Amino acid sequence: MKSALEAVAELVRRESGMTFDGNRVEGLRAAIARVQPGADPIAFLRRLRSPAGGRAALDALVDEVTVNETYFYRERAQIDAIPWHELLASAHARGDAKVRVWSAACSTGEEVYTLAMAASETFAPVAPPVEVVGTDLSVTVLGRAWEGRYRARAVREIEPHVRDRWLARVDGGWEVLEPLRRLVRFERHNLTRDPVPPLGESRFDLIVLRNVLIYFDAPTSAEIVGRLRRALHPGGALVLGSADVLCETTRRLAEVTAPTPSDPIALRERRPVRPRRAASAAPALATPDPIVEVLDADAAFADGLTRLEAGEAGEAITSLRRALYLDPAFAVAAFMLGRAHDELDDRVAAARAYRQALRALDSTPGGHHAQLQQIDGADVAAACRARLLAIGDALS
Is this structure's pTM higher than 0.85? Predict the structure, then answer.
C-alpha cells in the first residue's frame, strides 16, 4: 500500500512527468512544507484530491519542485550558433514566409525573448521574419513571461548597446519593449501529456528545450526528444541544454546541440573521449583507490564518463574520485560523481557530490570544465540543485 507521500509523488508524475522514485520521494516532503507550512503528506494529499483547491495546490507543488533558474543569453554559444538565414531559406523553400521557433518549458520567458532578440540582431535593419512560441506547464511563470519585466541579474549577459535597443529601464529593472514583444507569444503546454506540436500549431524550424530533461526519468526523456524531433520541419534543428546532456550521459540519450554554420541542421551525438593512460614509468598517484592509473584529472574524468556510459557506475566512481583528488575544483567531475552515486541509489553520497560541485562553482566560477566548451557553470549548478531537490537534500 502506498504512503501518502508516494501518492503525492504519483500525482506529480502524472501531471508533469517528473519522477521521485525510491529514496528520492523524500524530496517532496520539504516542497510540501513550503507550499503548505505545517501540513503533513496526508493532509496535503487530501487537499490535492479536493475539488476546491486541488488544482491550485498541484500547480504550486510542481512549481516548487522545479528550478526556474534562467536568464537572457544563457549558454550563449548555442544561441550564437543558430543559423537563422539557413532556417529562413528552408522555410522559403517550402513556401513559408517566417521561421517558426518553439521554446518549450520556457519558464519566465528570458529564453523566448533572447531568441527573438538574436533573430532581430541577425536580420537588422529589417524586421525579423521570425515567430517565437514559448510554452510552459506553470501558469505562474507564464504570467511573469507575459509581463516581460526582469531584474538586472537576468540581463547581465546582454551587451549594453543590444540591451538598450530592446529593453527599457523600469523600477530598478528592465522591461521588454514592444518591437520584441510582437515577435513572441506564450501558451500553457504540458510536454508529457499534451500533443506535440501543441494544439493549433504546425511544425517548427527550431525547437529549444534546455535544462528540462534533468527532471525526467530515462524513458520519459527519450519519448520527449522523439516527439520533439517529429515536430520539426525537415531541415529543422533541435537544441538541448548542457545540463540535460550531463544528466543523460548514463542514459545513452543522444546529445543534440546547437547547429554550427558548417553543419546547420545536424543532430549530433557526442561520445566520451577515451581516456589517456599514463606511461608505464609514471609513478603511482597516492589516492584512496589507486586502481585506475591515469595521467591527469582530465583523463580520469574521461575514464569515469566512459565507464558510466557503459553502465559501470562503481568503476566510474573510482575514476571520478581520482579526478577530484587531482583537481578539487573540477565541478563537472563532482556532478558526474553524483550521477554515478544516483545510479547506485546512494542518496547520501550523491548529495555530498552535488554539494561539492556547487562549492567548486562558488569558489572558482566556471569550475574546471573548460574542455567541455558547451557547458555553462550556471547550468551545472542548476542541475545540481535539481538533483538535490529530487533526492530530498535540504539546500541551505
Answer: no
